[in-house]
Design a protein that fits this description.
167 residues; mainly alpha; Helix Hairpins; two-stranded antiparallel ribbon; 4 helices; 64% helix; YbhG-like alpha-helical hairpin domain-containing protein; coiled coil
Length: 167
């Protein structure tokens, strides 16, 4: 019985500790304002960073340059666009003022020269085509003559188009 009383007394001593753990975790409450210390910026282009002009932790204003990217590609594209603009402006000026008489004369002479070369190439083709039938000339030679005739025709067409553009 003494052992039982000792057991009950020990249980009675441990009971407050067991009941304390039933209360649940104590809630920590903190009131205040959360202020951002970091802002994530994403680049609109994927280029190599060449300069960071603002030191970390410095105050910045609207319009301040935060990061300098490598602009080599954009500079090249700008140069191409400027060249295209200059070419278009020159074309516009040519259209406004019209072609000079010398330009017409040069273009007409080019057409006449190309026409003569084509006529010669066509005659050579016809002559070689007849000779191939008799076996005097090889088919390879005829192929060369056909290529020359086609080249002369392309040059004549180009010259005629250039003359048309001037008109």
């Amino acid at each position: 019985m003494v052992a039982m009383l000792k057991g009950l007394a020990g249980l009675a001593l441990l009971l407050p500790f067991g009941l304390k753990s039933c209360d649940g975790p104590a809630a920590d409450v903190a009131l205040g304002q959360l202020m951002r210390e970091r802002v994530l910026l994403t680049a609109t282009a994927n280029e190599i960073i060449t300069d960071l002009p603002i030191a970390e932790g410095s105050a910045v204003q609207a319009g301040d340059v935060l990061v300098q990217l490598d602009d080599t590609l954009q500079q090249a594209q700008l140069a191409v666009a400027q060249a295209q603009l200059a070419e278009a402006e020159a074309d516009l000026e040519r259209m406004r003022t019209g072609a000079r008489p010398e330009e017409f004369a040069i273009a007409e002479a080019r057409v006449e020269g190309a026409r003569a070369v084509y006529q010669e190439a066509q005659a050579s083709y016809e002559r070689n085509a007849r000779l191939v039938e008799t076996g005097t000339v090889t088919a390879a030679r005829l192929d060369e003559v056909v290529a020359q005739r086609n080249s002369a025709l392309a040059e004549l067409t180009s010259a005629e188009q250039s003359l048309q553009e001037l008109r």
